[in-house]
Amino acid sequence: MAELARAARQDAGQNAAMGANLPEYSVSELSSAIKRTLEGAYGYVRLRGEISGFRGAHSSGHCYFGLKDEKSKIEAVIWRTTVQGLKLKPVEGLEVIATGRITTYPGSSKYQIVIDALEPAGIGALMALLEERKKTLAAEGLFEDARKKPRPFLPRVIGIVTSPTGAVIRDMLAGFSERFPAHVVLWPVRVQGETCAAEVAGAIRGFNALPVGGRLPRPDVLIVARGGGSLEDLWGFNDEMVVRAAAASTIPIISAVGHETDWTLIDLAADARAPTPTKAAEWAVPKYSELLEQTGKLGLRLGTSARRALDGMRAHLRAAVRGLPRRSDLLALPRQRFDAVDRRLGRALLANTRAHGTQLARCASRLQPRLLEGRLARTRDRLDALGRRATASLTRTTGPRRARLERTAGRLGLQPIVVRIARCNERVEVLASRARQSLLARVADRRRHLDGCAKLLASLGYQGVLQRGYALVRDSEGRALRSAAHIAAGQRIDIELADGRVDAQALSGGARDGAKQLPPTRAAPRPKSGPQGGSQGSLF
Question: Is pLDDT at 472 greater than 50 in this prediction?
Fold first, then answer.
C-alpha cells in the first residue's frame, strides 16, 4: 500500500510539472483561435474537385455539398446571395474549380470552404454538363419537331438578338440589303459572359410581349445570332433559361450561333438552325431578283393558261349553241296554251259572278229585324231572372250575419271595463303605499349615514383640537403659521380659539441669529364662517 501511494504521488507531481505553464482555454476561445489562424494562413484559394452530396438548394436558399478527389474531401457552402449570380450552378458529380475562403464552423468542429465563384474544370466537364442538360430538356419535349413553327415566306418585320457592335449585325444587314430590304428591329445583348443568358432570354420574351399594332412593330421572325468561338464563349446559349425562352416563343426563331461546326442547345429548341448568321439572313427573306423573275414566269404561265381556257370555253359554247332548238319552236306550244286559257277565263268570271249573286239573294231573305228583337227580348228576360236570384241570395247571406252581429253587440257592455278599471286603481294604490314606505326607509338609512359622517367629522376636525385648549395662528392673509421662525416682529397675526378669534401683533420675531428665515407655508384661505362653518382647516 505504501508503494502504491508513493507511485500515485510521483505521477501527480509529474502531471503538475507538465501542465504548470500551459494557458487555459475555453472551447469557444480555442475554436475562435483556430478559425482566425486558418483564415489568416489561407484566405482565398482555388480548389479543384468533384461535387459530391449535392441534393439541391436548401429551403433557406443556401447550397451545401462536398468537394472531393481520390483521397480527400472538404465541405463546401454557397450562400444564397452568391448562388443567384453564379454562371455555373452546382451539379452532382461535376468536376469544378471553386474560388472561395477557407474557414471553420465551430458548431461541429470542421473546416469548410465558402465558395464565391464556380467554373467547370476543363472542356470535359462542360461537355458532360451539356449532355446532362440536353437529356433533361429533351425528356421534357422541348426539342421535338412537332412543336417547331414554319418560317414566314415574306416577313414584314425581322427581330435580331445579337451584339450591336460585332461584325455579325453588319453582315446580316448587308445580306438584307442585297436580297430584300426589310424592317429590322435589333435588341442589343451581350453574347458572352455571365449576363449573356439572362439578356438573350429577356430579349426573346420581350419580342414576344410586344403587342400587334403597337408603337414598336412586332417581328414576324426572330434571329438569335453570334459569331464563332470556343465552348466557353458559346456557353451562354446552352443555358436552361435561354432554351426555355426559345421553346416558349410564339414567334418563329432562327438560331445562328457560331459556325457550321458549332452547336448549342438553342439550336435544338429553335424552329430552324442556320449554319452562319449570314445564312440566317438569307433564310429569313427571299431574294428580290429571284422573286421578280419567278413572278414574271408565273405571270406568263397565268396568261397562257387563261387564253387556253378561254379558247376551250368559246369552242364549247359554239358547239352548245349549234345543238340548241330555235326560239320560235320553243315558244309555239306555250303561246297556244296561253290563248286557250284566255278564252276560258272570260267565261269563268261570268259564271262565278252569277253564283255569288244567287247566294247573296238567299242570305238577304233570312236577315230580318224581328230576329234581332226576339234575341234581345230573350236576353232581357234572362237578365231579370238573374237579378231576382241575386237579391234573394243577398238576403239569405246578410240575415245570419246580422243576427250574429246583434248577439255580439249584446255582450259588449260598460260593466266589465268599469270592473277592470277598479282593479287597476286598487293595484296603483298598493304600489303607491309600497313606494312611500320604501322612500321613507331609504331616507332614514341616508340620515343615519349622514349622522355618522357628522360625528366622524367632529372627531377629526381641528375644532375638536381647539376645544382641548389649543389655538390656530394665521397671518394677515389667512395662511397657517406652523413655526415661530415664520413670524416677524410687528407682524399682524390672527389667533383662533375654541370660542372665537383674536387679532394680535407679534412683539418680536421668532427667527434665531444666523439662521435663514424660511418662507411661510401657504395654507388655505381663511374660512368666512365661524368655528362651526363649512370650511375644514388643518393643524398639521
Answer: yes
C-alpha cell recorded at residue 230: 470556343
Alpha-carbon distance 340 to 344, whole Å? Answer: 7
**Phi and psi torsions of 474, nearest 5°:** -125, 160
Q: Show the cell assigned to 91.
A: 451539379
Domain ranges in the chain are: 27-121, 149-286, 288-319, 462-505
Quick count: other Cβ atoms within 10 Å of Cβ 334? 9
Give me the architecture of the 27-121 domain, per CATH.
Answer: Beta Barrel (2.40)
Query: Is the domain defined by 149-286 classed in CATH 3.40.50.1970?
Result: no
pLDDT tens-digit profile of 44-68? 888 888 888 888 888 888 899 999 8
Pick from 507, 523, 519: nearest CA to 462: 523
Residues in the chain: 540
Cell representation of residue 181: 430590304
Rounded distance between C-alpha atoms, residue 194 and residue 279, angstroms: 28
Pairing of strands 157-162, 110-120: unpaired
In the DSSP assignment, the letter for residue 165 is: T
Sorting pLDDT into bands at 50, 70 and 90, what band is 124? low
- Nearest C-alpha neighbor of 111 from the set 75, 151, 69, 156: 75
Are 27-121 and 149-286 in the same CATH fold? no
Contact predicate 509/489, CB 8 Å: yes
